[in-house]
Fold:
Amino acid sequence: MNAIILAAGYATRLRPLTDTRAKELLPVGGRPIIDRLVDSLAAVDEVEAVHVVTNARKADGFRAWAEGRAVIVHDDGTTSNEDRLGAIGDMQFVIDRAGLDDDLLVIAGDNLFEFSLPDFVSFWRSKGQASAVAVRDVGSLELAAQYGIVALDDDDRVIDFVEKPADPPSTLAAIATYLFHREHAALIRGYLEADQPADQPGRFVAWLQREWPVYGWVFDSTWYDIGNHEQLLEADNRMRAAAGLPQRDAYSPD
Structure:
């Protein structure tokens, strides 16, 4: 199994913080967001390598961060929202660049969670030749409209997946943490060659589950999707409290 951390977006909603550094390198609780993801991945024995895919504007920052870490940084060569490859395009980019032919554990680099990745992997393995996505009840239809919404059958198989619906059918949201069986990962190229949307990895899951088994692993522990300044401050203060640091009224990377 190989892990891919998706970190090639431009995080325009967090400007000016992200004008000079990647969102994933912003500290929460005194440590970069991506550090916490790498810690979580280290608990998964099956992971042979961790790949971080980023863009040309932020690649130097990631390379500096990665020094001394067992992490491979890939620069996808893009420089703006206009020429970005999209999350699914970046997955294929890493597959091609690293020559991967393996199961893939894919995580969006702005995810902060407290669940156990080994538990997620165990759930996925119990389902045989299948893929899986971590899902959480966000408890609000307003919030649900910002995410991919899933429907599960009695065996937790995904039977519907709608990306950012205007009228969400439920509040059970995918959180951009995926396990793709190697045979399913091999389908990404065909998906892209068919001119399917390259952004938002949930769109590949929505396409995949129509023909192949995909399961939803439901968790209820703390999770942050850091998309704006308010979410960043909330996550920072929660992590600062856990680290015994004082709370702040406004976020600062210092």
Summary: The first strand starts at residue 2 and ends at 7. The mean pLDDT is 92. The radius of gyration is 17 Å. Residues 229-242 form the longest helix (14 residues).
